[in-house]
Specification:
By secondary structure, this protein is an alpha+beta fold. Helix content is 29%, strand content 21%. The chain has 2 domains: 81 residues, no CATH class; 56 residues, no CATH class. The chain has a 4-stranded antiparallel beta sheet, with helices on one face. The chain starts with 7 loop residues before the first strand and ends in a 12-residue tail after the last helix. The chain binds adenosine-5'-diphosphate and magnesium ion.
Length: 171
């Protein structure tokens, strides 16, 4: 299965921002491969461009960003196909089909990245609501299963809680 095919292949990616005083080069010629079934860590000092690169993979870079290179995604569920994420129209159907469904991101700083106005269950099951035809009860069961899998002591209770009610670690 998947012999020799990279799940994700980042090729010569450069990301810069147009700012006063000239362009800010956040990422210069980044190259990396993510292999199917393997964990890949990108390590670097603060400000070295890790987050900006992940934003490029998710198609969520701000409008002010200039990007070049290729980000090739080979979906194991669609063998033999490879898509260049950087060629996808911004917020078009192609990237929207991937984002939150095939590629996800856990943001830093949970107290700012989680909505204080929505319950934990609501936020965890949102991507299922967007990407699957599951019924509400089924979504709830699946979200609780996920909370259980990541170690929530009481997933059913956590489903109806707000982020501020959780400990820092659970957030
Ligand atoms: N929206 C933006 N506009 C201008 N510069 C940005 C923007 N986002 C990030 N940067 C700059 O890009 C560089 C890389 O940032 P970042 O990817 O957040 O680093 P890391 O995640 O590795 O700490 C930094 O110099 C940062 O200031
Ligand atoms: Mg970062």
């Amino acid at each position: 299965m998947n012999s020799g095919v990279d799940l994700l292949r980042i090729e010569d990616v450069g990301i810069s921002f147009a700012i006063i005083g000239g362009p800010l080069h956040a990422v210069r010629r980044a190259n990396l491969r993510v292999l199917p079934g393997k964990v890949t860590a990108l390590v670097g000092e603060s400000g070295s461009g890790k987050s900006v690169l992940s934003q490029a993979v998710m198609g969520i870079l701000p409008n002010t960003a200039h990007v070049r290179g290729r980000i090739l995604f080979s979906d194991p569920e669609k063998p033999g196909t490879t898509q260049d994420i950087l060629q996808m129209p911004r917020d078009g159907p192609e990237i929207r089909a991937l984002r939150g469904s095939r590629i996800g991101k856990i943001f830093q700083e949970p107290m700012t990245s989680l909505s204080p106005l929505h319950t934990v269950g609501n936020q965890v099951s949102e991507s299922l609501q967007i990407h699957t035809p599951m019924a509400r009860v089924e979504r709830k069961a699946r979200a609780e299963e996920m909370l259980d899998l990541v170690g929530f002591p009481n997933p059913k209770r956590a489903y109806d809680m707000y982020p501020f009610e959780l400990s820092g670690g659970l957030r």
